[in-house]
Design the sequence.
């Protein structure tokens, strides 16, 4: 069996073998990754990708792990974490952030500088990278509403490209990066508006309060498990199918918010997948609506 770690030994990239993926997902679920890589800048990220590609090592890029379900069997390749690549710069009402920047870091910078437009993201526990892939959104706004341009690395051509807002192909929880997994997002520039600081604080407080009241933040979870089907709300469909509190193993349909699957303790990825299937089947039988998973399964 080949020693994966050895392949990256000519670089200064931080590595960990047999890395416990449950530590890296807000679901607290997952087996071992053969190798975890922690590049500290873009240059190291590009090197990690290039070495992986050239040696046919399977790899996945992970931000904060708040929208992924890692398999119980782990991952037979390299998981590349972006959290150390997190530079942010401010220029008037423009903020440029690297992929591993936490959304809360940007919303806090915006608040400090009386810039409005990013309040929606304050409570989303992800990185810019994850948010761009999913076009993360809340409270009537999303990444598509603020993005001006982005940079990405094309792993087919090994070139860095710059795209305008229109070229992102943003849609509900969807973007160019979600469709084409050979593109690795690097950084984005967003445009916000000068506004009254007090009003920004008010919006953030209101959103935080609403999250605290409606989301099961006391249990490990990955946010809304399903996308919102056209014309419906996934949580309402699940609730109307009497699935609140339904559980398989340690995985349960949250009693607080039916759109969330929570880990009540010791849940496996298999428990979550079986529960997800049961929800999908029941909702389809009862309402004739097909639910689509928002959370990405990494196996
Ligand atoms: C309590 C809670 C509340 C949440 N609320 C919301 C909400 O209100 N709105 C919302 O939209 N989401 C919400 N989420 C889901 C999640 O936080 C967001 O989707 C977030 O943007 C994911 O970011 P991440 O860094 O954790 O991504 P990860 O989970 O690390 O990755 C998600 C996907 O993006 C890919 N990816 C990450 N970085 C890159 C990159 N640089 N290049 C290519 N692919 C990449 C990964 O491979 C994976 O497929 C919530 C989650 C939790 C746990």
Sequence:
């Amino acid at each position: 069996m080949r020693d994966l770690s050895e392949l990256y030994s000519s670089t200064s990239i931080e590595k960990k073998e047999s890395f416990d993926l449950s530590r890296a997902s807000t679901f607290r679920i997952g087996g071992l990754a053969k190798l975890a890589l922690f590049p500290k800048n873009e240059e190291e990220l590009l090197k990690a990708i290039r070495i992986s590609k050239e040696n046919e090592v399977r790899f996945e890029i992970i931000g904060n792990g708040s929208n992924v379900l890692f398999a119980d069997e782990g991952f037979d390749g390299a998981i590349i974490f972006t959290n150390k690549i997190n530079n942010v710069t401010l220029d008037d009402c423009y903020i440029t952030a690297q992929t591993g920047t936490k959304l809360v870091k940007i919303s806090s910078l915006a608040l400090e500088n009386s810039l409005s437009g990013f309040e929606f993201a304050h409570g989303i526990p992800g990185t810019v990278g994850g948010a761009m892939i999913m076009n993360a959104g809340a409270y009537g706004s999303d990444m598509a509403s603020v993005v001006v341009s982005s940079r990405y690395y094309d792993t087919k051509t090994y070139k860095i490209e710059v795209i305008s807002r229109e070229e992102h192909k943003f849609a509900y929880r969807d973007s160019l990066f979600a469709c084409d997994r050979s593109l690795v997002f690097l950084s984005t520039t967003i445009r916000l508006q000068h506004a009254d600081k007090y009003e920004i604080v008010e919006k953030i407080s209101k959103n935080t309060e609403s999250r605290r009241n409606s989301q099961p933040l006391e249990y490990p979870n990955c946010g809304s498990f399903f996308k919102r089907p056209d014309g419906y709300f996934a949580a309402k469909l699940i609730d109307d199918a009497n699935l609140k509190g339904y559980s398989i193993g340690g995985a349960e349909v949250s009693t607080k918010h039916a759109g969330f699957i929570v880990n009540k303790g010791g849940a496996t990825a298999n428990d979550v997948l079986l529960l997800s299937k049961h929800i999908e089947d029941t909702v389809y039988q009862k309402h004739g609506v097909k639910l689509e998973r928002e959370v990405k399964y990494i196996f």
User: Anything to note?
Assistant: The first strand starts at residue 14 and ends at 20. The chain has a mean pLDDT of 97.
